């Protein structure tokens, strides 16, 4: 008996396969080097969109995949981030680097205010509530004169590239690196989260809240923590997006399409996994960008047709997402010991 | 020292008195068996004690401390663990992960929490299945998973709801041994059981419920001979 | 702010509320049967309105006469939805079920946008037009008929579910599908019937509203949200609850728009939703 126990205890905590680590490392190096291979503006834009959407999806993954709360209005936090940097720059000349934090704080506070009454609701009720909230944000911002109402905010362009104002006009490359770094940091933090005590407890809350509370887990508190973390991951993407396009309005940043796409990407890639959002973004964003080119004006609607269709197909045939195609050799090997 | 004392605990659902003025005490280090026909209110009693359902009236004291009205997570924090009649494993997680969530309560470091979980999994004799997903386990194994998970929080009092229900015959002696091992390690146990042989074998005291009311409390021998219990539930019992 | 204006708002709200009630009833029926929230409910409503529109625009059939066709089309749509999508997700996790019907709503809405463009349409000079004057209150004839038809349909639904054999079979399946199956009631068939009736209700509502409402691809969104709130307010699974809830929502929308600000109607209804789910999570008549 105890020999088996000794073997079990000697196992490594995580299957840090040397091969996977070096693969990831190589990938990271490649990503840093990519712009130097002479990528033109379109490809840089594509990569930027992939990074951004991967982080946005990861944000949704934290609340939905790790904690089991389906939010259909996550775009609200994106919009808050976008307005935070734009507003403080336009009104007070504050550098976006600082207001990114304002955006995170506002989102975090919103998450707490929304979360306290809503997160005690069961799945469907919460989903509907978030749908209502997402649309409410759009409605409210469309009528809020302080932030430009329906016309939104136009961020004044600097004469050249400016790191302080987070604007670059000569080339997309600086944007590429900013988004890349945010992407890598977020990915790493979420990866740490999934392996932490907090991560374990969130999964318990997701899988069976009643059982979780019999194990000393204060379920409502943990749901709120997850929601706040999720909101604070989303907001910076809104902020960076605002700096990327320099014109924001309620329809662009509080659009329900944002909430739709983060859901789709995560479910497509593999909800509840760390890699899912990245896989989903890497596949979906190129499809979306290319369809926009080839299908021109109607590209918008065709995008959504595809999204709806893919979402339904995944739910029917592969609810665990595309990541479930990755062979589970490592796990199987473990079982045989 | 009375580890648990319950006074006049009542709870009604609509017109039905699921628990009606139930009172009893549990000695530290003992095993209390709870018996009664289906619908007697046994699981409701557990839900009331552990805070899953709010009692209408009554007092519950754990080591003299009033725990009435506390939420389930606070109650488990004080040292009361439980298993559920309708099993609640974390289905998409492995056995090890399930138990680790329990061991995280007392152990902050992940490696130490994992090792402790492994020790408990070994204690319930499931070490080979540690990397299996909970949904892949048999009923008997899931019952042991729940016990292991509840034990991982190092409870002083463990409430077990029908651990031998739905389990095939040959697994039962193992479970009984487990319960005895637990008692020896100092855990006080309250167990709801339908298997009369087991209850008579392991219990120091037995609480008999019927239709939400306490109809008897005493040693196994006293209960065997209690006419009301025999009529409502036991039928005739042939002592081994 | 005269009492006449307020009375007008009350009457309008009441009429609209009856329509919300029927739409919500369809949603509630489906949820009660199989624990699935049809997030595409608004889009189904939109389809029924377009059905009325195209039957009028292409074949010259007035909405009053095309209603039976619309109802039939929607019932078929319900059966198809069950057969091609819902059937596969009945055993899936709630998350997946939500995503599936959510995906359906996106799909239907965007195909509609592609085929029919997002332009606003309306039916010109339907047979049912004009308005009545009752005391100081103006009541649009199409609105009045729409609400009355919805009310009748609502009670028709209620009687069907509580008094007919099929209706009782539906109730049995809703309460415990396995027990019902043992008694010889095939769940799959019941579910399909549930979808057919649920979307049939939507067909009635949409078909009648086509007489006076603007018809466009996004029209379903608001109605869907109000329907969700109505079902939550009335209690998930309770049909009668939908009637009370629908009327309350209609009144709040109308009076709120009048007394406070018309552009925030959604927020008032949202406020109701918040109050209900926080203070009485089972809703007025709910099972949960």
CATH architecture of chain C: Orthogonal Bundle
Q: List low-pLDDT spans of chain A.
A: none
- Tally of domains of chain C: 1
Rg of chain C, Cα atoms, Å = 19 Å
Task: Tell me the helix content of chain C.
Answer: over 70%
Q: What do the pLDDT scores of chain C average to? A: 90
Overall SS class of chain A: mainly alpha
Oligomer: heterotrimer
Main-sheet strand order of chain A equals 1-2
Unreliable parts of chain C: none
Assign the CATH class of chain C: Mainly Alpha
Description of the structure:
- The complex is a heterotrimer of chains A (about 325), B (about 240) and C (about 290).
- Chain A has about 325 residues and is mainly α.
- Helix content of chain A is about 70%, strand content about 0%.
- Chain A starts with a helix and ends with a helix.
- The mean pLDDT of chain A is about 90.
- Chain B is α/β, with parallel strands linked by helices and about 240 residues long.
- Chain B is about 35% helix and about 25% strand.
- Chain B has helices at about 40-50, 70-80, 95-105, 110-125, 140-150, 170-185, 195-200, 220-225, 225-235, and strands at about 1-15, 15-25, 30-35, 55-60, 65, 80, 155-160, 190, 205-210, 215-220.
- Chain B has a 6-stranded mixed beta sheet with strand order 6-7-8-3-9-10, with helices on both faces. In chain B, strands 2-1-4-5 form a 4-stranded antiparallel beta sheet, with helices on one face.
- Chain C is an all-alpha fold and about 290 residues long.
- Chain C has a two-stranded antiparallel ribbon with strand order 1-2.
- In chain C, β1 (about 130-135) and β2 form a beta hairpin.
- In chain C, α1 runs parallel beside α5 (about 140-165) and α10 crosses α11.
- Chains in contact: A-B, A-C.
- The interface between A and C is large, with 43 and 42 residues.
């Amino acid at each position: 008996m105890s020999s088996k126990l000794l073997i079990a205890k000697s196992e490594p905590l995580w299957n840090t396969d040397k091969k996977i680590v070096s693969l990831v490392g190589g990938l990271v190096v490649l990503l840093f080097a990519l712009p130097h291979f002479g990528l033109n503006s379109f490809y840089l834009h594509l990569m930027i969109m992939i990074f951004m959407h991967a982080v946005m999806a990861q944000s949704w993954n934290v609340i939905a995949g790790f904690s089991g709360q389906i939010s259909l209005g996550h775009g609200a936090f994106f919009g808050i981030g976008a307005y935070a940097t734009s507003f403080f720059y336009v009104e007070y000349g504050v550098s976006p680097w600082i207001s990114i934090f304002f955006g995170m704080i506002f989102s975090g506070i919103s998450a707490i205010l929304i979360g306290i009454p809503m997160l005690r609701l069961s799945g469907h009720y919460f989903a509907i509530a978030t749908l209502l909230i997402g649309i409410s944000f759009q409605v409210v911002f469309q009528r809020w004169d302080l932030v430009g109402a329906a016309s939104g905010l136009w961020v004044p362009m600097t004469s050249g590239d400016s790191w302080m104002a987070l604007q670059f006009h000569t080339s997309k490359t600086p944007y590429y690196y900013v988004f890349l770094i945010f992407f890598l940091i977020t990915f790493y933090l979420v990866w740490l989260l999934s392996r932490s005590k907090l991560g374990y407890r969130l999964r318990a809350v997701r899988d069976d809240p009643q059982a979780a509370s019999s194990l000393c887990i204060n379920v409502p508190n943990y749901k709120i923590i997850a929601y706040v973390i999720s909101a604070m991951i989303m907001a910076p993407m809104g902020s960076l997006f605002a700096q990327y396009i320099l014109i924001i309005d309620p329809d662009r940043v509080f659009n329900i399409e944002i909430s739709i796409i983060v859901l789709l990407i995560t479910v497509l890639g593999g909800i509840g996994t760390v890699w899912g959002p990245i896989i989903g973004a890497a596949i979906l964003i190129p499809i979306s960008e290319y369809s926009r080119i080839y299908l021109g004006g109607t590209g918008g609607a065709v995008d959504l047709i595809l999204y709806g269709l893919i979402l339904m197909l995944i739910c029917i045939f592969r609810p665990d997402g595309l990541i479930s195609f990755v062979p589970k050799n490592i796990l199987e090997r473990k079982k045989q010991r | 020292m009375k580890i648990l004392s319950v006074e006049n605990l009542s709870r009604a659902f609509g017109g039905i008195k699921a628990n009606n003025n139930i009172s009893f005490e549990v000695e530290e280090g003992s095993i209390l068996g709870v018996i009664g026909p289906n619908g007697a209110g046994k699981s409701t009693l557990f839900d009331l004690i552990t805070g899953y359902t709010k009692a209408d009236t009554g007092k519950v004291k754990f080591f003299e401390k009033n725990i009435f009205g506390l939420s389930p997570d606070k109650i488990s924090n004080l040292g009361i663990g439980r298993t559920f009649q309708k099993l609640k494993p974390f289905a998409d997680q492995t056995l090890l992960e399930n138990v680790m969530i329990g061991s995280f309560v007392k152990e902050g470091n992940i490696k130490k929490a994992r090792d402790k979980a492994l020790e408990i999994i070994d204690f319930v004799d499931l070490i080979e299945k540690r990397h299996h997903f909970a949904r892949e386990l048999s009923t008997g194994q899931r019952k042991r998973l729940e016990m292991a998970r509840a034990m991982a929080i190092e409870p002083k009092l463990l409430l077990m709801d029908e651990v031998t229900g739905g389990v095939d015959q040959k697994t039962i002696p193992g479970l009984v041994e487990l319960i005895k091992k637990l008692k020896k390690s100092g855990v006080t146990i309250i167990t709801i059981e339908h298997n009369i042989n087991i209850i008579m074998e392991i219990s120091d005291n037995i609480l008999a419920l019927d239709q939400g009311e306490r109809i008897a409390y005493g040693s196994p021998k006293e209960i065997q001979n209690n006419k009301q219990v025999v009529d409502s539930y036991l039928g005739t019992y042939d002592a081994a | 702010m005269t009492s006449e204006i307020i009375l007008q708002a009350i009457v309008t709200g009441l009429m609209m509320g009856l329509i919300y009630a029927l739409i919500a009833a369809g949603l509630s029926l489906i949820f009660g049967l199989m624990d699935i929230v049809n997030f595409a409910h608004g889009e189904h409503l939109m389809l029924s309105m377009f059905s009325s529109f195209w039957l009028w625009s292409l074949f010259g059939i007035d909405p009053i006469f095309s209603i039976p066709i619309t109802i039939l089309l929607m019932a078929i749509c319900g059966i198809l939805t069950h057969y091609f999508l819902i059937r596969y997700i009945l055993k899936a996790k709630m998350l997946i079920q939500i995503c599936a019907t959510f995906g359906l709503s996106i799909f239907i809405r965007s195909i509609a946008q592609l085929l029919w463009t997002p332009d606003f349409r309306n039916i010109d000079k339907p047979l049912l037009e004009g308005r009545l004057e009752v005391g100081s209150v103006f009541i649009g004839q199409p609105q009045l008929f729409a609400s009355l038809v919805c009310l009748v349909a609502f009670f028709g639904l209620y009687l069907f579910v509580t008094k007919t054999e099929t209706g009782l079979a539906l109730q049995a399946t809703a309460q415990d599908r396995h027990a019902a199956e043992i008694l010889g009631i095939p769940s799959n068939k019941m579910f399909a019937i549930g979808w057919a009736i649920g979307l049939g209700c939507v067909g009635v509502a949409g078909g009648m509203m086509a007489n006076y409402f603007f018809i466009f691809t996004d029209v379903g969104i608001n109605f869907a949200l109000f329907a969700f709130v109505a079902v939550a307010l009335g209690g998930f699974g309770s049909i009668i609850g939908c009637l009370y809830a629908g009327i309350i929502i209609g009144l709040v929308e109308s009076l709120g728009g009048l007394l406070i600000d018309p552009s925030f109607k959604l927020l008032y209804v949202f406020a109701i939703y918040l109050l209900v789910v926080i203070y009485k999570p089972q809703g007025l008549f709910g099972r949960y």
